[in-house]
Specification:
The complex is a heterodimer of chains A (577) and B (176).
Chain A: H1 2-8, E1 17-20, H2 21-31, E2 36-39, H3 46-54, E3 60-63, H4 67-81, E4 85-89, H5 93-96, H6 99-107, E5 112-118, H7 134-138, E6 144-148, H8 154-166, E7 172-178, H9 179-183, E8 185-188, H10 207-219, E9 223-227, H11 229-233, H12 237-247, E10 251-253, E11 268-271, H13 278-284, E12 289-293, H14 299-302, E13 313-318, E14 332-335, H15 338-345, H16 355-377, H17 386-397, E15 402-405, H18 409-417, E16 426-427, H19 438-448, E17 454-459, H20 460-463, H21 470-476, E18 481-486, H22 491-500, H23 515-521, E19 525-529, H24 532-544, E20 549-554
Parallel strand pairs in A: 2-3, 2-4, 4-5, 5-7, 6-7, 9-10, 9-12, 10-11, 12-13, 13-14, 15-16, 15-17, 17-18, 18-20, 19-20
Antiparallel strand pairs in A: 1-8
Chain B: E1 6-15, H1 20-30, E2 35-42, E3 48-57, H2 59-70, E4 75-82, E5 86-97, H3 99-103, H4 106-114, E6 117-121, E7 125-132, H5 134-145, E8 151-154, E9 158-161, H6 167-175
The chains are: A alpha/beta (577), B alpha+beta (176).
Chain lengths: 577, 176
């Protein structure tokens, strides 16, 4: 393309030349500055793989061990970098294996483009070999999708795909391309998409909404900020911190919002929701103005909606108008991109400090510390806790690591206790709760940010759902640090069985393999810790390793995660034990 | 806001796109909402389709549905209206044995009184078409059914609103 630009003395995107649809796909990716893609080859996508072979100096294709792994890796890539992750698969089972990752990206607003091969267009609808209606299947879990049956339609479809995935509230898109369209030759040119007539990604911010919101904030006696991933996605961290500090308002986060404000920030009062911190849950029902920023009042955050912040005026900063008053009625909706709206409201906000109100958070933290945190982080009883492992990682990484978690008890513990100095450091499956997310997501994260320490933390259950991606780690030499907190149970389900099903541990006990041997089978350095005395040294060895490292920590079998808002209860009914 | 369940028409202006029907109907399916009727047609603007969806819901839920419909990339705008706020028509088709026209003279009166139109007649059957409100079609159905109806079908509701829609202006603002 570069030579062409020189020869034609015009923009590369405007030149045309006859190439195949499959080459066009790769050229579109290059034009979108994609450097890494994750995927798995197969019949209907082979022409594209043939082109990837030719263009391997420009695009690095990562062969995952399962298509689900490809989507999670693309998600991890997107979440740590803010760029669009790309996954590619063949038709039929290759395409359906992407669905879990796509659904995960949809509910967690992760920008991702999935490209699937499809049977030749003359076979569509005929139950051909490896034919599946992936456009139909993926419709409810994609932000947008389409099928392409002509090579000439490929550039516009992919341009739209990248634009839609990244703009506004991000999300996954899927482009299904028939094999004949991949073979067909056409005059290629590529133009990035910057506008779609029917699509308004960033709603207009009404000045009046900013003024009403500012007045409420300025007059509030007990204001409380709850923020979510919107702050991270719009890269509004600086404006957000400025608002928190100027207004002196305690702020708490959803798990996808974690790390947008450093854990150590004095006004960061912790995690919201079912296993969040005591103070922010309790005081949600005492604040007078609740300021929600880039979050969607998920049921795991709100508990019983009929008893959620009923006393408070609610201000909702949000990019997606469909989220306004969906779960919690907003008294003031500030529509728009958080980076812009937060910057715009800042001059209207009076400097303040709500010392007494902030003290209430500190007092409740102290109660939580004595009842829960102390025992989690500095246990004196026998048996390692998940919390002390996270604490050791905090100490040795000095809060600089990106923590990638799976789903379950270890996830809640990691989110609660991990120290985050930098934004985009907590990569986890929030909305969908996808077990098996962590290990492949960590691969994508490490490849997108090789300069960062990436620590994957999983439980013994979720780890085994995508354990085959150890092969990808080995083949790619991805220096991911892998921690498995092994309690030989599907711990979160077991905890619920203990608390709500009279300890009937139905199918939650795991008879596990020799995890160290498996890691070593993939030629990874591996170690197992069973005693507290060995923990520090083992974490040190892991953190100092220049290559991938597997650390299994055998933790207490029946540890529980507290505090806990029981399912269906009010956030202020949060239990400490 | 009205807290009682009632019929609402949801009018959706969209790009003319394969698959969009699936995307929109999935929004109703997820929330377990039965669509009473659905009509898709061209609109007053070139290449813009108009969906007219009838649902029996409470207003607060209709609003949420509207938000989720508008969120779809290829949806330009969605509105909801009560039946009082629109001018609407439904069409019913009745296929009846021709011999009944002669055997049952009341049928001719029913046709006249109902303002139904005879679409076609042959020796075996004739076809009646009646446009109007749902109750009017139902009334004609009840009258004719005593004589026997060979086939009956009714269209979805189509409607125009009393208010202006201003879709062209909206598209203009999106383009700028």
């Amino acid at each position: 393309m570069e030579t062409q630009t020189i020869q034609n003395n015009s923009k590369a995107t405007k030149t045309t030349e006859k190439i195949s649809g499959s080459e066009a796909i790769v050229r579109c990716l290059i034009a979108e500055e994609v450097k890494v893609i994750y995927g798995y080859p197969g019949g209907a996508i082979m022409p594209v793989y043939d082109e990837l072979y030719k263009y391997q100096d420009k695009i690095h294709h990562v062969l995952t061990r399962h298509e689900q792994g490809a989507t999670h890796a693309a998600q991890g890539f997107a979440r740590i970098s803010g760029k669009v992750g790309v996954a590619i698969a063949t038709s039929g089972p290759g395409a359906t294996n992407l669905i879990t990752g796509i659904a995960d990206a949809q509910i967690d607003s992760t920008p991702m483009v999935c490209i699937t091969g499809q049977v030749p267009s003359h076979l569509l609808g005929s139950d051909a070999f490896q034919e599946t209606d992936i456009v139909g299947i993926s419709t409810p879990v994609t932000k947008w999708n389409c099928q392409v049956t002509k090579a000439a339609d490929i550039p516009a479809a992919l341009a739209k795909a990248f634009y839609i995935a990244k703009s506004g509230r991000p999300g996954p898109v899927l482009v299904d391309i028939t094999k004949d369209a991949q073979f067909e030759e056409f005059d290629f040119s590529y133009e990035k998409c910057t506008k779609i007539r029917s699509y308004n990604p960033i709603p207009k911010t009404e000045q009046s909404s900013l003024e009403v919101a500012a007045k409420l904030i300025n007059e509030a006696k007990k204001p409380f900020i709850v923020w979510g991933q919107g702050v991270v996605l719009s890269e509004a961290e600086t404006a957000f911190k400025a608002l928190v500090e100027k207004a002196g308002i305690p702020a708490a986060w959803t798990i996808l919002g974690a790390s947008a404000l450093p854990t150590s920030h004095p006004l960061n009062v912790g995690m919201l929701g079912m296993h969040g911190n005591y103070a922010p849950n309790k005081l949600t029902n005492e604040c007078d103005v609740l300021i929600a920023i880039g979050m969607r009042f998920d049921d795991r955050v709100t508990g019983d909606l009929s008893k959620y912040a009923k006393q408070a005026k609610v201000i909702h900063f949000e990019i997606d108008p469909a989220e306004i008053s969906k779960n919690v009625k907003a008294d003031v909706a500030v529509l728009g991109d958080a980076k812009a709206t937060l910057a715009a409201i800042l001059p209207l906000i009076q400097e303040n400090s709500h010392t007494n109100w902030h003290q209430q958070f500190k007092d409740l933290y102290e109660i939580e510390y004595q009842k829960v945190i102390k025992n989690d982080l500095h246990p004196t009883k026998e048996g390692l806790t998940m919390g002390e492992v996270i604490n050791e990682i905090n100490i040795q990484s000095e809060g600089e690591a990106a923590i990638v978690t799976d789903v379950g008890q270890h996830q809640m513990i990691a989110c609660r206790y991990a120290d985050f100095n930098k934004t985009k450091s907590n990569i986890t499956s929030g909305g969908l709760g996808t077990m098996g997310f962590g290990l492949p997501a960590a691969i994508g994260a490490k490849m997108a940010a090789p300069e960062r320490e990436v620590v994957s933390i999983s439980g013994d259950g979720g780890y085994q759902m995508t354990i085959q991606e150890l092969g990808t780690i080995f083949q790619q030499k991805a220096a991911v640090k892998i921690v498995v907190l092994n309690n030989e149970f599907l711990g979160m389900v077991r905890q619920w069985q203990q608390l709500f099903f009279d300890k009937r541990y139905a199918s939650t006990e795991m008879t596990n393999p020799n995890f160290v041997a498996i890691a070593e089978g993939y030629y990874l350095k591996a170690r197992k810790v069973v005693k507290r005395a060995d923990l520090k040294e083992a974490v040190k060895e892991m953190m100092e390793s220049k290559e991938a490292y597997f650390l299994e920590v055998c933790v207490e079998k029946e540890g529980n995660v507290f505090p806990m808002v029981p399912s269906g209860a009010s956030v202020s009914d949060i239990r400490l034990e | 806001m009205n807290t009682e369940k009632q019929l609402y028409t949801i009018s959706v202006y969209t790009e003319n796109n394969i698959g969009l029907l699936n995307r929109i109907s999935a929004i109703f399916q997820r929330r377990h909402i039965n669509i009473e009727s659905l009509n898709i047609s061209p609109s007053e603007i070139d290449n813009v389709s108009r969906f007219t969806i009838v649902v029996n819901m409470i207003e607060v839920d209709v609003k949420k549905i509207i938000g989720q419909i508008e969120k779809q990339v290829e949806v330009i705008k969605a509105y909801y209206h009560t039946l009082d706020e629109i001018i609407y028509q439904i069409s019913g088709l009745f296929k009846i044995k021709s011999e009944l026209l002669f055997e049952e003279p009341q049928i001719q009166n029913i046709i006249k009184e109902s303002n139904a139109r005879i679409v076609t007649v042959n020796t075996a059957f004739f076809v009646l078409e009646k446009s109007g409100r749902k109750e009017e079609i139902a009334e004609l159905y009840n009258k004719l059914s005593t004589f026997g109806i060979m086939q009956y079908t009714r269209s979805g509701l189509i409607a125009v609103t009393k208010d202006e829609m201003r879709i062209s202006e909206l598209l203009e603002t999106y383009n700028n």
